[in-house]
Design a protein that fits this description.
single chain; about 230 residues; mainly alpha; about 0% strand
C-alpha cells in the first residue's frame, strides 16, 4: 500500500526524470533536491528501527532494548506502584474484592515521562545528530499521545493478569504487606518484561510512531524542492 513517504519519493523521482528527459533544468533540480531530501529522511527513519551495515548508529531502538525495558520498569514502580498508591487502592477497593479493575487508576497516571525517556534515549544516541538536523526532539512530539495510549493499554493488560491479581490478594494479610506487595509486583513486571524481545519492542514502537515520522519524508521533499528551485534562480 502506498503511503505518504513512498508517494513523496515517487513524485520527486518523477520530476527528476521528466526534467532530465526534457532538459528542463528547473524541473530537474527541483526533482533532484526533493528526491535527495525525501530519500535522506526516509533512510533516517529506517535507521531508527533497522541496522544498516556500514552506517554507524543505525538500529538505535533495538540497540537500546535493555534501556527501554529498564525505563518502563522504573516508570511503573516509581509512579504507579508506589506505596502510597497501593495503600490507597487496597484500603478502598481490594480488601474484599473478587474482581480487580485498575484501569480507572491507570487513566489518571501521567505517562509522559515514559515518552520523554524514549526521546532522551534517541537524542543521546549516535542518531541524535541526524534528528537534530530535522527539527530535533520537536519532530517526534506528535507521537506523544499515541505512545501514552499504547503504554496505558500495556499496563492495564499486566494488571488484569490472574497472577497479578492473586499476588495482591494473597499479600493483604501479611504483616509486611506493602514491602511484600511491591516486591511481588516488581517480580511480575520483571517476568513480563523478560518475555519481551527486541523484535516485539521494535514493532510496538514502530507501529506507534512510524506513520507520524512519515511527515519528515514529506517535508524533506518539499524543502528539498524549494532549495532546488532557488538554486536555478541564483
Amino acid at each position: 500500500m502506498l503511503n505518504k513517504s513512498m508517494i513523496t519519493n515517487l513524485m520527486s523521482l518523477l520530476l527528476l526524470v521528466i526534467g532530465y528527459c526534457m532538459q528542463q533544468n528547473t524541473l530537474y533540480y527541483i526533482g533532484l533536491f526533493a528526491f535527495s531530501g525525501a530519500l535522506t529522511n526516509w533512510l533516517a527513519i529506517h535507521m531508527l528501527f533497522e541496522r544498516v551495515p556500514g552506517l554507524y548508529g543505525s538500529g538505535v531502538i533495538p540497540a537500546r532494548f535493555e534501556e527501554f525495558k529498564a525505563s518502563i520498569k522504573r516508570l511503573m514502580m516509581e509512579q504507579f506502584f508506589t506505596k502510597t498508591n497501593v495503600d490507597k487502592f487496597l484500603s478502598k477497593e481490594m480488601a474484599s474484592a473478587t474482581n480487580i479493575n485498575l484501569e480507572p487508576v491507570i487513566e489518571k497516571i501521567d505517562l509522559s515521562p515514559a515518552f520523554d525517556s524514549l526521546v532522551e534515549v534517541i537524542m543521546n544516541s549516535q542518531f541524535g545528530g541526524m534528528l537534530a538536523m530535522m527539527g530535533g526532539s520537536e519532530a517526534i512530539q506528535p507521537m506523544r499521545e499515541p505512545f501514552i495510549e499504547k503504554m496505558k493499554v500495556s499496563i492495564t493488560e499486566i494488571s488484569q493478569q490472574e497472577q497479578f491479581k492473586n499476588a495482591l490478594k494473597d499479600e493483604l494479610e501479611s504483616p509486611a504487606m506493602m514491602d511484600d506487595i511491591q516486591i511481588t509486583i516488581e517480580e511480575i513486571i520483571d517476568q513480563r518484561l523478560n518475555e519481551l524481545t527486541p523484535k516485539l519492542v521494535k514493532e510496538m514502537v514502530q507501529d506507534m510512531i512510524k506513520k507520524h515520522l512519515g511527515w519528515l519524508v514529506v517535508w524533506g521533499g518539499i524543502f528539498g524542492g524549494v532549495i532546488g528551485l532557488l538554486s536555478t534562480l541564483i
